[in-house]
Amino acid sequence: MFLFYCGAVLAELDLVRDAETDPATTAIPAQPAGDRPGGDPHRQRRRRTCASLWWWRLVSFAALYLMSQPDFGADETPGWVFLSGLVPDCWADDGYRHWQSVGAVLFVAAVARLPGWQALFNLAPARYLGRVSYALYLVHGPVLHTAGYLIEMRTFAITTAGGQMITDRGYVAGFALGVAFIVPIVVWAADVFWRAVDAPVVRLARRLEARARPRDDGLRDCVFQLGFPLINMCLFVGILFCG
């Protein structure tokens, strides 16, 4: 739930930033050179932009490190001993998710401000995975608990001589061989779910939204600016106090 709310906040901040950087509202009026206090405003803006890019680059790499928190033995892993001690007690049951979650939020925030990362995630494979991401989230569990574990047993039996010779190399080979079969099955199942369920439901929701949307622009803006934040706040308070 923490990640869902952070995603909503990041999306809202992205809309605010786009509005603030609109050329129609942020254009610098032309002034004579002698009337410009503090130097050329265009040069100052370029410097601020360059500094901002470098800052968000550092944030993105730090976020990647946080997302690599080991699932097990982090308190004994070099580079993670100190960070593991900072995990709050409320995360005790899922301590490995704490820094992974923080890193995910920071990475998404950084990607929204870095054209280099955006170019990578705008490639066709990444865009496709983005479209089916919710379907992947829904179907990966059922697929793993049906075909996945069966395939895993077969691959480990091949690479470890039926469990008689369990070595690090055999374990890694069995895992890689299993992934080669399981991942395509998961993606295929997600694609089927996306085409058969997810996309039609989204189209239906958009049609219902279009019919329910107020015709008065002022009323519509009031609903979007006040109604939705109020609903989100009520949900957040309910989750906070009711678990």
From TrEMBL:
Whether Membrane counts among this entry's keywords is: yes
Keyword annotations for this protein, in alphabetical order, are: Membrane, Transmembrane, Transmembrane helix
Superkingdom of the source?
Eukaryota
Region Disordered, residue ranges: 25-45
Listed transmembrane segments: 51-68, 132-151, 171-197, 218-241
Q: What is the recorded name of this protein? A: Uncharacterized protein
